[in-house]
Amino acid sequence: MSRAASWLLILPTWIDIDVKTCGSAAVAGLASSLKPRYHFSALQGENYERLPYRNHVVLQENAQHVSRFIALASVGNPAKKKYIYAFSIVPLSRMEAAELVKQPLDVTENPYRKSGREAKKSLGAKAAEEEEPAQQFFFDLNKQQGKKRHSDGKAGHQTKQPRKPPQPTGPCWFCLASPEVEKHLVVSIGEHCYVALAKGGLTSDHVLILPIGHYQAVVDLSSEVVDECEKYKASLKKFYKSKGKRFVMFERNYRSQHLQLQVVPLPLSCCTTDDIKESFIVQAQEQNIELLEIPEHTDIKQIVQPGTPYFYVELDNGEKLFHRIKKNFPLQFGREVLASEAILNIPTRADWKACKLDPDEEGSQAKAFRRDFEPFDFSSQD
Ligand SMILES: [Zn+2]
User: What's the 198 CA to ligand 1 centre distance in angstroms?
Assistant: First the structure.
């Protein structure tokens, strides 16, 4: 019982509460499932306002409103501790979704979701031993988390095993072995990946890194395919640098069958990496797209499960901005931002169909790219 309370409370030293005897597992369960915006309670005659806590797992679940736990002292207590809380509240139904899910700066993780191990750490192992019954209550929550972890682990395990690439269900423009692929656009072929000029590219040296086999997204790739993508990225980075350019990469795993890592070089003189990042963030905001900065060295695989639609941008310093797609994501978003006034200022080229060349021109562009890229191409070094 007391475990529920001790996890919920972040007690300042001046509040003297016996955490072993306060709290109710039933109420904790209710609060955890109902996710109230405000949770009022008594607390051994004390007044206590906990920092607001999140009701969603960052980057894994849609943002939700926060909960605030407020304990009020006994009415008319001699120490004059606060026992009345006056506030005005706008009903959920009348609030804008964006306003409702806004996270305050001091928001904390959800106290009801802590894993058993973390809880032990914060409580001290001794206290944990003494409070066996409380563990029972959290067992269910842990079980859910445990299940999730298990499935994560399984996915991770799968990636280590060599898998045969899945077969496309219909014609695919990007499977290298497919008759539909436009071979004249291909500029380099590795063991698992290849590079091709983008059809109707934003610029003449806009390329795609693609898996040779039929994979839908980066999160579906096995580690050796990912490694080769990284090698291509490094080769392209050096190549573009020699041309006085930096690149921006993006992937849209939404309404697309075969993974395409779009690599668009931009002149160094046109904008800094920070300018590019800023433009993505600002233009996403304008379209109500929540672009989240993800911690450095974080794999997209660590954030989404295979099968989840998403969009992400990777800047040339390795920083990534990520959006989990729910619905109606603008298909040309990445291009639109790069073509916008803030960056390349070629808005009419945002749509690839407006930039299509005839096959001869495509062929000679690819030939020129191949020739210039070769000295930098890791796949032609051995
Ligand atoms: Zn394919």
Answer: 15
